[in-house]
Amino acid sequence: MITPSYDFDLFVIGTGPGGEGAAMQASKGGKRVAVAESYSQIGGSCTHRGTIPSKALRYTITNMVRFLNNPMVQSLGVQVSPTMEQLRRSSQTIISRQVSMRQSFYERNQVPVYHGLASFTDDHTVTIDGKMYTSDSFVLAPGTRPFRPAGVDFSHPRIFDSDTILNVKEKPSSITVYGAGVIGTEYASMFRNLGCKVNLVNTRDQLLEFLDDEIIDALSYHLRDQGVVIRHNEEMESIEGLDDSVILTLKSGKKIKTDVFLWANGRSGNTEDLELSKIGLEANGRGQLVVDENFRTARPHIYAVGDVIGYPSLASAAYTQGRVAAMHFLGEAIDPMVRHDIPTGIYTSPEISSVGKTERELTAARVPYEVGQSQFRSLARAQITGSTVGMLKILFHRESLEILGIHCFGANASEIIHIGQAIMVQPKPQNTLKYFMETTFNYPTMAEAYRVAALNGYNRLF
Q1: Residue 169: helix, strand or coil by DSSP?
Q2: Which of 182, 189, 194, 253 is the most exposed place for a label (fewest CB within 10 A)?
C-alpha cells in the first residue's frame, strides 16, 4: 500500500494557547507542522481580546486602587482619575511583546504561519485564500467569540460584549453585566473597583456553581460588600439602547437602567467557516465540538482543543490540551494527570483559584474527608500588605491524609494554588497532608497558609 504524500504531517488551525501547544509539541517531535491564523497577528483571542488585555487592565486598576487607598497617599490629599485610554495603555505594550515572543516560537521551530480563513475541502485538505494545503492530521483550535443573541443591537455605542468592552471610551458611572460566569464576575469586579455602580444579572441561582460552595458564598458576600448588586434567576426580556443609557427589561418585570450594558452570557465556537460538513463533522448549537480523552473528534485524524470543546475554557487548559493532542498524534505515552486536575484561576477582587474536588463532590461520592482552613487575616504577610480578605482551604482524606482538593480565595490565589497542586499530583504516599505540616515555609509569606491549614485540619481528626 502506497502512503499518500502530504504537504504536512500536522496542520493546526488557530494560534491561541491550544494551537500553539499542539504545534510546538509536534514540531519538537520531528513532524512537519504548519498553522493557520485568521487574524492579522498570532495569539488568538487570548492575546488580543481576552485574557491578556483584560488581566493587564485589571492589574492596572488594582494597583491604582491600592495606591489611592494607601493611608499616606490619602493624608497627602492625592486625587487622580485616569481615563480609560490611560488605563489601557499598558495592555497594548504587553500584547505587542506577547505577539513578538510567540512569533519567534514558530520561526525558531520552522513552523510556517498562513494568515487567512481556513476551510476544509476534504478529509486531508484545507483552503486558505484560494491556496490548498494537505496534511495527514489536523488540530482544530479556532477559539470562540461572545455569543450574540438575536434582538440585541451590538452596534449601539453603549452595548458591548466581552470582546468590545475593553474599547469603551469613557469610564461609565454605571454598568449592567448580564451573565455571571467567569467573564461576567471578573468584569463586574473590575468596574466596581473603578467606582462604577454595578448590576450583575445571573441567569442561575448562584455564582460560578462549579466552585466549592464556601468559595461561592465568600465571592457573593465580598461582591455585595463592595457594592455590586447581584440578581439571581433572571432572564432577559429586551435590551433597549438609548442616547444616554441602556434599559434592560427582565422577564420578571424588573427594569434596570445604566450608562452601559455588557453582554457576558455564553460564547460560540468559531467553526462556521471551517466547512465541517465536508469532513463529516458537525458542531453543536454553540459551535462546539465533541472529543474523546485524547481530544480526537469523530474523525480520528482530526483533533480539537481549547475553548471550542467547551469546559473548562481556560487558556492554561487549552495549552495542555494542545500538547496532549500532539503527543497522542506522535504516539507518545500520556500521563493521565496531565489531562486532569487543571487549576482554575478567576480574576475577581479578591481572586479565586482551585484544583481538585469540592466538598459537594466528595460528599456525593461518600468520601470520608476532612477540612483544614487558614484565614488570611491571621497571616503576618497579609497583615503587612493589607490583603487580609481571604482563606485557603485543604480537603483531605480522613484516613490516608491524601490531598483531595485545594480552594483559595484572596490575594495571589492563582499563584498560591500551585504549591498545593504540586503535592496533590504526586503518587501515594508523597501526596499527604503531612507534607505541609512538616515543611518549613518562609516567614512571613502567603504560602505559610498551607502549614496553618494543614495543622488546623489535622487537629480536627482528634
Answers
A1: coil
A2: 253
